[in-house]
Amino acid sequence: MPPPGIVGGSFIEKKEQNMAAETSGEATYGTSLTKAEPYGTEQIPDVERHGSPRSQFTLWFAANMVLAVMVSGFFSAQFGLSVIQGLTAVATGTLCGVLVMGLLAGIGSKLGVPQQVQGRGPMGFYGNYLPITLLTIVSAIGWTAVNTVFAVIALQVLVDINFALAAALMFAVQAVFAVWGHNVVHVVNKVATVVLTVLFLVISVLSLREADFTLASNPDAGSYMGPVAGWITFAGFFFAYVMTWTPFASDFSRYLPRRTPHSKVVLYTAGGSFLALTWLGSIGVLVSSFAGELDAIPALAQLTGSWAPVAMITVVLSTIPVSAMNLYGGALSLLTLKVPVSRIVAVVIVAVVSLGMTLLMQDDPYGGFYNFLSVLAYLVVPFSTVLLLDYYLRMRKPAVDSSVELYNTGRRFEWGFFAWIGGCLVSMLFWDTELLVGPFAELSRSVGDLGFLAGILGAGILYMLMYKMPVPTGLLRTRKAARQQAEADAAAEADVAGEADSDVDAAKPATETKPATELEG
User: Fold this and answer.
1) At a CB cut-off of 8 Å and minimum separation 6, what does 468 contact?
2) What angle do CA 463, 469, 475 make, to 5 degrees?
3) In this model, does residue 204 exceed pLDDT 70?
4) Which among 116, 138, 173, 333 is least surrounded, fewest beta carbons within 10 Å?
5) Spatial distance between the Cα atoms of 95 and 73, rounded to a whole number of angstroms
6) Confidence class of residue 7 from pLDDT cuts 50, 70 and 90?
7) For 329, how many CA atoms within 13 A lie in the half-sphere containing its CB?
8) 244 DSSP 8-state letter
9) CA angle (424 as vertex; 418, 427 as ends), nearest 5
C-alpha cells in the first residue's frame, strides 16, 4: 500500500489506520455521516469503498446549478447569435466538456485516488506541483470567490448586511461541509438537487416571460464575429466552464467500489452535469437580449419581478454545495503538494484565502468573470488531455497496481509534464485575451476560438511521441525509480503476454488439446 498523505496525524499513524482497516475487514469511515472524513490523498482502501455511480448524478447536477452558468448564457446576444445558434452552442460545448469530465471521474473508482494525485502519473511527483498549483488551487479559490460574490450581492438584496460579514458567514457554512468531507458533501448535494430544481423551475418560468424565441442573428451586436466564429467561441464558454471542473473529477468518485463499471460513472457524471448546464445556459440564451447588458444580480431581479426574493434565496443556497466542493478539492490539492497540515487545516487555509479574493472581487464580479474562466481553462485542457491519454495508454495495464507509482518521489518529472507545457504554449499562440494576445489571435477572431483545440492537439501529439521514450535518470528520475518503473513495465508486458497465451489455448478446439487421448483411443 502506498504511503498516505498527511491528513491529520503523522504518516505512520495514517498508514497504521489504513492497514488496520484492510486487515480487519472493517471500515473505519464507510458511509458514516457523524465522522469527519479521515482520508486525504492516500489511496482509499477497498474496505472503505461504497456508494453507487448514481450518486455522481446528483453531485454534479447540484454543483452546476449556479447563477454563473445562467450568466454565461447572457453572452449569446452579445455575439449576435440567433436563438437556435445560441442553444446549439450551449449543448455542444457542454457535451464535449462533460464527456471528458465523466471519463476522468470513472478513473477515480479504478485508482481510488483524487484527480490531483493521479496527475503524478504522467507529470511526475514534482512535475505535478505546477499544474496542481495553477489549475486546482487557483481554480478552487477563484471559483469559490466568484460564486460567493454573487451570493453575497443576492443576500444584500434581501437584507441590509455588510459585505465582509456576509461573505465570512457564507464561508463558515461552506467550510463546515468541506471539513466534514466526502459523505456529507454527497448528502448535501442530494438535498440541493431537489431544492434547487424546484427553485430554478420557478426562476425559469418567470424568466421566460422576457424570452425572445424569435431572436435572429445580429451583425450589429457588440462582439459579433460572424455566425460560425461566434458560435464556436460561445460554445467554448461552456466547454471551458466544464473543463475547469476536470482537475477535481475523481475527488468524489474515488470511494466507489473498484469494480464499478467505468461506463456508468461516465453516464451519471456527464448526465447530471449536462442537464444542469444546458438548462440554465439555455435560459440565459433565451433572455440574453434582455439581460445581456445588465449585471447578473440586477438582471435576475428584473427577470423575476415580485418573485425576486425567491430568486435571491436561490442564488445564496446554490452557492453552498458548489463552494463546499471547491474548498474540499482545494484542500486535497494542498496535501498533494505535501503541505504539512491536516485536511481540516487545509480546508481552512483555502477558505481564508478565497474569502480574501471574494473581498477583492466584490466591486467587479461580472467584468472579470470571463477572463478568469477562459485563461484558466486554456491551461486545464492540455492537462486533462494528458491525464486521459496516460491512463488509457499506460496506467490501465493489468496485473500492476498503477497507483503505487503515484507515491514514488523518485519519479520527479515525467514526459507528460513537458507535453502539458508544450500544449499550453501551442494554445497561447491563438489566445485573444487581456492577459495575452497570441500571434494567431486574428485567426481565432475570424474562425472562432482555437485555443482549446490547439491545446488538445499540442499536448496530445507531444505525449504520444514521448510517453514510450526512456526517462533520463538524474534530474528527471532517480536510478532507483527508473529500475522500479522498468520492473513494473516488464511485469505488465509479461502479464499481457500470459493472458494472450491463455486466450489462444482457450480458443483451441478440443481435438488439438488432447492428442495423447486420441492416440490411446
Assistant:
1) none
2) 95
3) yes
4) 173
5) 15
6) very low
7) 32
8) T
9) 140
